[in-house]
Specification:
By secondary structure, this protein is mostly helical. Helices cover about 55% and strands about 5% of the residues. It is built from 13 helices and 3 strands; from the N terminus they run ααααααααβββααααα. Strands 2-1-3 form a 3-stranded antiparallel sheet. A hairpin with a 5-residue loop joins strand 1 and strand 2. Helix 1 packs antiparallel against helix 2. It binds fe (iii) ion (FE). Fe (iii) ion binds next to helix 3.
Length: about 300
């Protein structure tokens, strides 16, 4: 690269880092976010590190307490900021010094690769990226589309039938220890319930579950519910339905019918999250706040 372009680029990156860090002080509350990662990436670019290509912890698309009373604020803080962040750290460490494959590719081949961090940390990253997007405040989540409702009726008899399937299939007697409960779209387009152990995912080739494209997934690790529900996992499973973001699930379902897995990886999903948060900010905050949020979004995501 010509020297003048390199210098100009360096100045631009430094400015972007400065403005991003400035904007951070007055906008969204979630720490360890995509925004931090972007700022870190910019700084890393300046100093020659490869951190800019690392997987990112996405910003929650709602406040920590937005899912109450189903899921309490403290659980959300620990779950997102600590547990999810640990999976991010794990996969980034495993990939240190090598190229970052698309997350979806990584988890599809995770079991066959024989690499535990790909399966455990990589699976944990995808599963939690998916989980945050799949939920939202009870008042704004819509309902299953007519098409999805028909598919639920076909596979489970009714919505109540689907919920009963989760009650039974996600209970400790059926899913012992940590794991996830899922609804997947199979190759024939039909829905099926399945569970996976640990951070396995129905998209992983060779997984001990019904393979398919997930459109619903419930985290059954104790870290997802223990602070509020302790040993009462069934209560957590029942309460979760109130915060399922059917608008998002409907979109994933349409994609799955075309063979497309949900795009939950941070760079793509973060742009969607930013626009959702920006819309919320526009509704709630005065113009000066919006200017900063818009500026930050445009810097981080190029929109
Ligand atoms: Fe979790």
């Amino acid at each position: 690269m010509p020297e003048h372009r390199r210098v100009r680029g360096t100045i631009a990156l430094a400015a972007a880092a400065g403005v991003t860090l400035w904007a951070r002080s007055s906008t969204f509350a979630a720490p360890n976010s995509r925004r931090d990662a972007v700022a870190g990436g910019v700084l890393a670019s300046l100093f020659g590190s490869s951190a800019a290509t690392a997987y990112d912890l996405p910003t929650l698309p709602y406040d920590y307490d937005a899912l109450e009373p189903s899921i309490d604020k403290e659980t959300m803080m620990f779950h997102h900021d600590k547990h999810h962040a640990t999976y991010i750290g794990g996969i980034n460490k495993a990939l240190e010094g090598s190229e970052q494959p698309p997350l979806l590719d990584l988890i599809k081949g995770a079991i066959k690769s024989g690499k535990k961090p790909y399966r455990n940390a990589g699976g944990g990253v995808w599963n939690h990226d998916f989980f945050w997007l799949e939920m939202g405040p009870a008042s704004s989540n819509g309902k299953p589309s007519a098409k999805l409702e028909a598919a639920i009726k076909d596979a489970f008899g009714s919505m109540d039938g689907l919920k009963e399937t989760f009650d039974t299939g996600a209970a400790p007697a059926a899913l012992f220890g940590s794991g996830w409960a899922w609804v997947v779209v199979q190759k024939d387009g039909k829905l099926a319930f399945t569970t996976t152990a640990n951070q396995d995912n129905p998209l992983m080739e060779g997984v001990d579950a019904t393979e398919g494209i997930p459109v619903l997934g419930l985290d059954i690790w104790e870290h997802a519910y223990y602070l509020k529900y302790q040993n009462r996992r069934p209560d957590y499973v029942k309460a979760w339905w109130d915060v399922v973001n059917w608008n998002q699930v409907n979109t994933w379902y349409e994609g799955a019918l075309d063979g497309k897995a949900p795009d939950v990886d941070a760079p793509a999903a973060a742009a969607a999250l930013a626009s959702r948060k920006k819309a919320a900010a526009v509704a709630k905050k005065p113009a000066s706040f919006n200017f900063k949020a818009n500026l930050e979004t445009s810097i981080n995501f190029g929109t």
